[in-house]
Amino acid sequence: MEEEYFYIGIDPGLKGACIAIDQNGEIGGSFALEHYADMPCYRKNRTRSVLNDESLMQWFCAFKNIRMIVAEESPPFKMGTVGAYTSGMNNGRLHLVCQRVMSHHGLSNFTNNFKTVNAVTWQKHAISELNLAGKWDKETSVAEAVKKWGDFPLFTKPKRTADGFSDAAWIAEYGKYLFKKDEID
Q1: Are 167 and 11 in contact (CB under 8 A)?
Q2: Which of 38, 145, 158, 178 is the most core-located residue (most Cβ within 10 A)?
Q3: DSSP-assigned beta bridge partners for residue 47
């Protein structure tokens, strides 16, 4: 019998989220990335937000047989020093949590169960799978997620985090495709 997995898509960032989907593409769990607000920064009178890695670790540990795919994040053009540093630091924390979770589940081969993907790649895949014409944007992500998975509150309220959840779901869906493709190859 084939081993069943949860595919966890992760959209990093301040309004980021995680979605777990099963073999059939059904949502099995969701988690809004939590951050500690107002952590001291090296610059005088500045603060930063830091990923709450403990709460994320607890959520991950609720699943067995997981495979993770994280959207690659890079600082946008003209992002300030504090923002770029904070983004990189939080991305590193996220990857460390993923590695710790794999170890917790006894998955010694981290690279077989963890992948990263850039936004262009998973978005092109979603556009192709959905037979869409045009560009992928926040509104498309949310609208298509509602069509595929239903009118879950996480895709609609609050609006400022809806695209984080919908993107995470599409990233998980791409991860499911990618991991299965790797098994065939």
Answers
A1: yes
A2: 145
A3: 40
